[in-house]
Amino acid sequence: MTTQRVEHKLMLLPDKPGCYLMKDINGQIIYVGKAKNLKNRVRSYFKSSHTGKVAAMVDQVADFDIITTDSNKESFLLEITLIQKHQPYYNIKLKRGTGYPYIKITNERDPRIEITGQIKKDGAYYFGPYPNVYAAEETLHFIQKVYPLRRCRGHQGRPCLYYHMGQCLGACFKEVPREDYDAQIKKIKSFLNGNTASVKKQLLAKMKQASADLEFERAAEIRDQLHYIEVTVEKQKIITNDKTPRDLFNFYMDKGWLSIQVFFIRQARLMKREKRLFPVVDTAAEEMTSFILQFYNRKNNILPKEILLPVGLPNHEISEILGVPVRTPQRGEKRDLMHMAYENAQLQLNEKFRLLEMDQAKTSGAMKEITDALGLSECHKIEAFDHSHIQGADPVSAMVVFIDGEPIKKLYRKYKLKTVIDHADEAASTREVIRRRYSRLLKEGQPLPDLIFMDGGEIQMDAARDVLENELNLAIPVVGMVKNDKHKTADLLYGQDDHHVHLDPRSQGFYLVQRIQDEVHRFAITFHRSVHTKHSLSSRLDEIKGVGPRTRNKLLKAYGSLDRIADAKVEDIQALGINQKTAQLIKISLQGKADVAKGSSHD
Q1: Chosen CATH of 246-358 out of 3.90.1150.10, 3.30.420.40, 3.30.420.10, 3.40.50.1240
Q2: Which pLDDT does position 600 carry in this prediction?
Q3: Are 246-358 and 366-529 in the same CATH fold?
Q4: Is ATP-binding set as a keyword in this record (predicted)?
Q5: Calpha distance 370→452 (Å, rounded)
Q6: 10 Å Cβ neighbour count for 161?
Q7: Which residues, other chains included, contact 128 with Cβ-Cβ below 8 Å and sequence gap of 6+?
């Protein structure tokens, strides 16, 4: 149901191209889209019926903003910038970097050939991407043996080992003519572009000559090189008659999911395939366009000489933005490849649906059980908190994150509590960690969770709600996870009256709550132990005369434990910048304590 404010804004939308930003009740941007006509596109979300992810997104929209542009091309560029800046939940999002290795011929007076993961505009020649690092390394080693450039560090007045092995042109002791390098680089480029016939003929002649000269080890080495060409370089079937480096994209869409296949065609062969699956909000053409532009905006990616796309995409705009020809094949090998990519995309998505059906109860199905029991609309992201201390000492808090029922460990956070006077004060601990966590998210414009789980009862829940509602003006539901007298997950607390919400102990929703509670407790306890252990070590070192904070930190950084410090030599302790008298005192003190500890362990 749209609000009156949204209805008024819909009436004022212009008939111009641009981008729109959908926002939830907390002002968080949850989707960014582009349109040739903002009025028609944005109104369609609120005036038409939807299903799946579109319906879920529209249900959460409380407001929207628009940014008009002068052309459709500008709206493409603006959309990618906004997606990368805000990382909206409902958009396709690609990481800026990839792990694909490339082979690089450096742009130097004495060029080298190497493997790199960083593409720079440095005049070098890059070839790839390779399917994996092993394939790139094997190709590199082969080239270094057959077409050597420079393997050494440069001029050193004498031939290097690689020169004697025939794998360096000799920049180590002489000036190599530029023409020699150019000739080798030409052969390397030809080889990397799939022209293997000439090098095979050359190697075969060398192998026969070595065999005739009774140089059987040399002949065996050349035989292995020929075998490498056959099993690695020529392993892939030739799929085109020309050597143009090109990337091919195709997709299959069904039930709100987009399955994408990317074929990397190099050396006239299909060198690598990348596959992606996304639940999407917009049309297939719009989502594919966004994917392709983000794909080439990543750091470790070089553009091919040609991009092949299926029918229905804005080839002209994509070509203008990327600066390479973009075509839709109509016949022959390229059309067959496009069909193969489509079939693979369809196969991949159908497999995904089968797996989704099996996992539904364990992940999003479990989330739905929880939200239904709480009387809430669809939720995706849960952040759960727990506190830990030993008799009030070294108080810490920890947070874990679950999205659609799965733990996302890279989003976990640890907190050393700073403002809690009474270390056993659960309410004060909760106030501090909630304040720190969500004031920071608001300040940085980061996504907020749909639910907050507190591992505890009414005290923690009331404290969390107080900070969220009265200090930060946030309306995030807070849920308490209750344990029984056996310290096992029992049920949930929710609402202003903190009433009990019972889940079936045999349901997937109950198991998910149990997993969240166990995980946040484990994470908090592990963090507390590491802090407490470090403080214990620090306090024992502080008891030694002459050891101040700086000396203590040096020792802990170098050795990590009292036993290792006690076992160290006085000279090694002195090497850290500690005077001899203090080093000897540290050694004697810690050895004495270690001996006492060993004696008590034998009693």
Answers
A1: 3.30.420.10
A2: 37
A3: yes
A4: no
A5: 13
A6: 11
A7: 100, 101, 102, 103, 136, 266, 271, 302
Q: CA-to-CA distance for 100 and 266, rounded, in angstroms?
A: 14
Q: How much is the pTM?
A: 0.51
Residue 90 CB coordination number (10 Å): 22
Tokens of residue 405, six digits: 């029922």
- Please determine, for residue 261, whether its predicted confidence score (pLDDT) is greater than 90: yes
Give, in words, the CATH class of 543-602.
mainly alpha
Handedness of CA 395, 401, 402, 408 (dihedral sign): negative
- Cα(600)–Cα(603) distance, rounded to whole angstroms? 5
CA gyration radius, the chain: 32
| CB count in 10 Å sphere of residue 345 | 24
CA-based angle 369:373:375, to the nearest 5? 115
- CATH architecture entry for 366-529: 2-Layer Sandwich (3.30)
Average pLDDT over residues 113-119: 83
> Measured between alpha carbons, how far is 62 from 465 in angstroms, rounded to an integer?
22
Yes or no: say if 228 and 203 are a contact pair by the CB < 8 Å rule: no
Give pairs for 35-43: CB < 8 Å, separation 24+. 35/75, 36/72, 36/75, 38/13, 38/14, 38/66, 38/68, 39/13, 39/14, 39/15, 40/15, 42/10, 42/13, 42/66, 43/10, 43/13
Rounded Cα–Cα distance for residues 528 and 448 (Å) = 26
Q: Looking up tokens 């839709």, which residue turns up? A: 328
Domain ranges of the chain: 4-86, 102-233, 246-358, 366-529, 543-602
Report pLDDT digits (tens) over 568-592. Answer: 888 888 888 888 888 888 777 766 5
Q: How much of the chain, in percent, has pLDDT values that exceed 70?
A: 84
CATH number 3.40.390.10 given to 4-86: no
Would you place residue 597 in the very low, low, confident or very high pLDDT band (cuts 50, 70, 90)? Answer: very low
Which has the closest alpha carbon to 288: 231, 328, 347, 324? Answer: 328
The pair of three-digit structure tokens given for residue 492, joined into one six-digit string: 């949930």
> So what's the pLDDT on residue 393?
59
pLDDT above 90: percentage of residues in the chain: 23
